[in-house]
Amino acid sequence: MKKTSEVVASEVFLGYPDPIWCLSAAALTTNTLTACPSRCNRPSTSSNGAPRSTPRYRSYTSGRTMRSTSPSSSSSVMNTCPLAVVRSLAAFCGFSQALVAYAEAPITISEPALIRAVMAQDPDPNSLYIEDRNFGGPCLVQVARAYHKQVITRLNARTARLLFKTLGLSGKLRSGADYRVAWAPQPWAQLEPDLPTTPVEGRLLYVRLCRKGFRPIDLYLFITLLDPVLYPLEEIVALYGLRWQVEIDYRHIKTTLEMDEFNVKSPQMFRKELAAGLLTYNLICALMVKAALKANLSPTRFSFSRCWRRVRDLLVHGVPGWVIAQGGVEDYVLDRLAKCTLPCQPNKVAHEPRKVRRRPAVFPALKGDRQAARQQVLQELSGEAIS
Known about the structure:
single chain; two-stranded antiparallel ribbon; 12 helices; 10 strands; elongated; disordered N terminus
């Protein structure tokens, strides 16, 4: 697969001529976003005929879940008006971190059911999808074969052992194992009913990752890249390690762009605000890629939050006049973004607590005129001096 050489364009893999065309390389992750289809269409009157006020809904974040709820959190309101959520599935580019595909469904629909909608948005048959374990499994492999995609999926130990037993070999998997297998879905697997269910040819990889100071990790992978010479185990493992970037991409969308709360009254308005936010995210990613190519760096070396602040300041305050007169607006913007690199922290440790020593100062809210408040403070000080 020729596109694979473009997929792995990063600091780990060098020598690829045009890495920007790795847009088809995507990693999958799941998230739950706000939607109010059942509650936003409630009637304007209650069951007894009394007028009902239309609440504004906001979403709150708990880990990787964002839900929509009304400002009131009483149990009576929660029982009569259950939480309405939408399950979403997104695919991000492995090089530019841009969002390339998105699908949503009711919360009752599982993530594997959305895989087909995401892959259907990708017209390139040479795309490579990387996904975490317990995500799609047989359904992902089935849909990928139907749409002529390549996959790297992580397996749990039980599934890996079942695949190993189909080879008729005895013993246990050894670190560095690379076997040619045919993955046949189990009877209880969730599959697309209108797609073929024949076994999928692939490779079963196993490696035990050991790092000083950390617990060892048993990594089981199933890949559809069949050539072990062109796609060696070491490069596949390093490529799978880049999948974690997709979790950071979701954090940028929800935290940096402040898309963890949506004050909307209808599902249509929620989708409009979400689309505007995702377009903004892709715009920042596109500028980061252009700045990275100009500076001969990887886009992952740039700080998304700093780049976002630079672009926002330029949109609000504009570009200096001398830059416009010289006609170098694009170079000026890219040069400023090229300075937004992440700091080098060689001594950073994973167990460092993310806490601060200084407590935030909390003052009471000011009510009324500030000048009157100043006079009141002066009177209190003068009274203390006399006493």
